[in-house]
Each structure stands twice: as C-alpha cells, then as structure tokens.
Amino acid sequence: MRLCFLVEEQYRYDGMPLDVIRQLTAWGHQVDVLWPGRSLLPLSEAVRAGSHDAWVLKTVSGGPGLTLLEAAAAVGLTTVNDVRAIRGVRDKALAAVIARGSGLPVPVTYAAARAEEFAQIPEAEFPLVVKPADGSSGRAVRLVETPDRLPAAGAAEPAESGGAAGGLLIAQPYVPNSGTDLKVYCVAGELYATERRSPLHPGHPVRERQVPLTAEVARITAEIGAVFGLDLYGVDVLLGPDGPVVVDINDFPSFRQVPDAVARVSSAVLRLARKGAEPAVPGPAAPAEAPLAAIGGDR
C-alpha cells in the first residue's frame, strides 16, 4: 500500500508516529511523509486523487496538518482517523457539547475568550480546571482554586506548545480524584487501560503501567468511538466520587504502555486504509501475549 503521513514539527522525534512509519516501510509498504510546519507543500500534486491509499495525521490541534487532511478527504481519499471525527475532538469546546449531548459523563463546560470571564461562574463550582480549547498533551492546563486567581490562568503559551495564543478557553469544575489519570487507548477496536500522573498533580508519584479495564470504562470508551467516529484514539478518565468522568479525547495519541504498540497501530492503519476507515466497534483488548507475527500478519 502507499500511505501518506502528515507529521508536524513537535512530533519529529516521537516514536508515534515515526516508529509506525518505519514498521510499515519494513513490511514493504511505501510511506511518504509530509512536514506541514517546515516545508513547502505542492498542494495540488500532494492531494491528487488516487496517489495514496490513505492519509494519516499526527499533528498539534491548531497546526496546518488538519487542513491538508481535509483537502485529501475533499478529493475522496481515505483518512485515518476520519477527518470529520478529528475535527470533532480537536476543538475541546465542541467535543464537550457533543459528548454531553450524547449522554457521556463529561463535566459541565464553560467557554470564554479570557479567563477573567469565568468569574461569573458560581463560586460553589470552584475549583475549576481551565485549559485552551485547542490544547493538547496536557499543556497549559491549570487548576484555579478561587475566582481571584483567574487572571493568572489566562496566561497564554506559545502556539507551538499545544495551544494557539489568544484562542478560546474552556473551564470545567474540578473532579476530586486520587491524582492518577486513567488513559484508555483504542486501537481499531481493541481497548487498553493505563495509569499515568495527572498534569494537575505533578508531585504525585505514579508509575505508568497497564491496568485492568473495567466494564463501565470500556463501555464509555466504546461509546466515545461510536459517537465521534474514531478508530485510533485515547480517552482521559478520572475516577471521581460519582464514577468515571471523561475529561479529554485525543485522536492518534501516544499509545504508551500498550503492548506491542508499534506493530498493533501499524497493522490497524493498514486495515483501516483497506476498508476506507469505516468506524470500528471497540471490544475487549487482544491478549498482551499475542504473538508479534500474528499482529504483523495483516500486510
């Protein structure tokens, strides 16, 4: 197969997706890589219909890669994930509305251009978690204990750090938790749960590891894939006093702690490319001890 990966500057040294690109190449597939943030792109030629079997995006939320992916989809090319699904989760304000409207456990969400505007939220809902609506990788996420601390929460970070300076902010009431985030990954139908330290509790010692996936969290994660039309995605879940709460959704995440992640993701990209990225129905994860030859057999 011939695939095109869109990889932005921030991920030029990351294992995801570079190791996947190497794996696909080793399996005999042709992989072209476009770097939207640091090269001249011949758009008309790059998105010519029929030139690639599928396009795959690994980019920051506000980066130019999504525009290129949408251009490929506009001429009928397959994209991984589906480009409409990516747009739905890249805007965290939009994602919160879609998720709550579908009955998913997402906190009440407020949006404003300046952090100071969140002072209108009833004080009983503080502390708040404030973050850019187009942020990624936990950057610029701030815990605001009281309304008088809101101005500091609006300090913009450079666009290349994961959020566009001057963009929309969102705020959600803080969900009390142990300081450990549950990150659930979906690899085209297979689910994996991992633990990691919360960006709001950087001093809390947490060993990143794969953990058992409960039936309730698996159901929520599967519903997210169905609602948004995602195939390769990650969901950040907090285990609050009233049960699991979804606080973030990401397309094509890092897949850290997923066993044989590179081979699994590479194989999933091929399957999705072959079937035109039709939405997958998430189910139980394959056993961690699944032989690598079986994973790589879908070539």
Helix/strand-derived category reads alpha+beta
Q: In terms of per-residue confidence, which ranges show pLDDT below 50 for 5 or more consecutive residues?
A: 156-165, 283-299
Q: Largest sheet at a glance? A: 5 strands, antiparallel
Radius of gyration: 19 Å
**Treating each run of at least 4 consecutive H or I residues as one helix, how many helices?**
9
Give the percentage of residues in beta strands: 15-25%
State the separation between the terminal residues, measured CA to CA.
Answer: 9 Å
- What's the mean pLDDT score? 85
Report the helical percentage: 25-40%
Tell me the overall shape.
globular
Please provide the ordered H/E string of secondary-structure elements. EHEHEHEHHEEEHEEEEHEEHH
Counting DSSP E segments of at least 2 residues, the number of strands comes to: 13
Strand order of the largest sheet: 11-10-9-12-13
